[in-house]
């Protein structure tokens, strides 16, 4: 799940936008699978530090020469840095959850965040939600409850980390809504990358006494950064070709990719009840996005 905001107007190529988002969420799901595999062998701070440093290098090489100071220029720097800290904590809790749980169920629990954002935005940002909107939000929450149900076979500690991840993601997206009024998309991406690189580099220092990753595993950690940066870039380009209301439902393909790749790589297939829960989350999210689209038109 990702929020990338751009001030560029869409230019009526909706199928291109949908295709780009489909590829972007595939990159994110591939990153989830890589993270789970790496956490079985290496400390999470080491993995995520390399991922953020790789993303920072990519921004420096490909974006800085064109953007220069616009890459980091902000109006509300304190809130921008706070947003970066919430995403860093989300990355940490995601790694801890993936270490203990299947990819599909972990990502599904994370997707409680859009519904929480909608609920909190009512008193915090003064947004309005229709009765139909509340119905689908409750449907999405119920889908998450089905996945987390007692006796479902998920590690309770892993579920706790996934819920903390959803809480961090909720704060992150609420801050994104506030900051989108004053900040550019590329500056927001740069600062979350910079904060993450510093945060995890510091956390990774004590792990330098541990065995260093093999060359293939180090390459996989770098690939995490490539997937993340490429995914954010594809989202930014997608918003130039299609409206947000059309792109939003495609986000939920992340759940499909995550469950499919988790099964192919680790043999983790959600049971029948969890599959129903995942389907409820996808249905609720897509319907909320379509309702938003219809209200605007």
UniProtKB/TrEMBL annotation:
It comes from Yoonia maritima. The keyword Transmembrane helix applies. Pfam families: EamA. Keywords: Membrane, Transmembrane, Transmembrane helix. The chain crosses the membrane at residues 12-30, 42-65, 77-101, 107-125, 132-151, 157-175, 187-206, 218-239, 246-266, 272-290. SUPFAM superfamilies: Multidrug resistance efflux transporter EmrE. It comes from the Bacteria. One of its GO terms (cellular component) is membrane. This is Threonine/homoserine efflux transporter RhtA. InterPro entries: EamA_dom (IPR000620), EmrE-like (IPR037185). Residues 16-148, 158-285 form the EamA domain.
